[in-house]
Amino acid sequence: MLKTRHVLFTLVATAALAACGAPSDQPSDDATSAAAPAEAAADPYAESEKRMDDAMTAAVGTDVGDNWARKMIAHHQGAIDMSQVVLKLDPSPDVAEMARMTIDKQGKEIEAIRKLLKDGVPDQKAAELYRPVMTDMHQKMMAASGADSSETFLRKMLEHHKGAVAMSDVALRNGVSGAVRTRVQATRADQVKEVAMVEAMLRGETMDHSAEPAAKASVASPAPAPKPTPVAAPVAKPTKAAKVAPKATVAPAPAAQPSPSATASCSPEHHAMGHC
Q: Regarding the domain with residue range 44-206, which homologous superfamily does it belong to in the CATH classification?
């Protein structure tokens, strides 16, 4: 009898627990879905950052250079997405200008890099060369925050640019060559300038426009025309002296001979003394 009562008590208790639902320490689907908007509100760039990291990880090229190109396209697209986010958050004037410049510049660089992509068998081993610096960049970007959306954007973009420099260093150390190497070097130099610009903006300085693309600057300020090279006047060659015709020799006038009349009238004495 006691055993029967014990069994009935166990069945009733089990039914009661089932009616109460899942244990309180297990989050429900509703709680999980509510956490996503809360995270987005705390970090409005989180979705763009995760999408960029996923795209960079999935991008696999045929060699070291092709991997850099494909991953850098995803990297630049991430900057465009984040810039579009900050423009909706009433940023400071300098940050708004930087965001618009980033959208324009990174879009052009994506098109330039697309022209360098290769067809072939994906090289996962070459892709793995970039994983450490990509992971480091992603973690630092996700952790970066500021006093407002503008400062947070700057701090995240600072790590974003540093990541591009690190990725370019990986490519250069591992023998990337040809047109891709030229593009890697140009991208690295540009990202170094942007790192310096963002650091200055975080110190409270105004945006440095020298970080804008060199091509754009050359259109705005065309190079001065080269000065004409002065042409030296031709040096006259010495001419041979013209032969001078010899002067006509003038024969000396013959001594005057005494006229016959004068001789006839001269007396012998005078003639002997030379007077006539």
A: Ferritin, core subunit, four-helix bundle (1.20.1260.10)
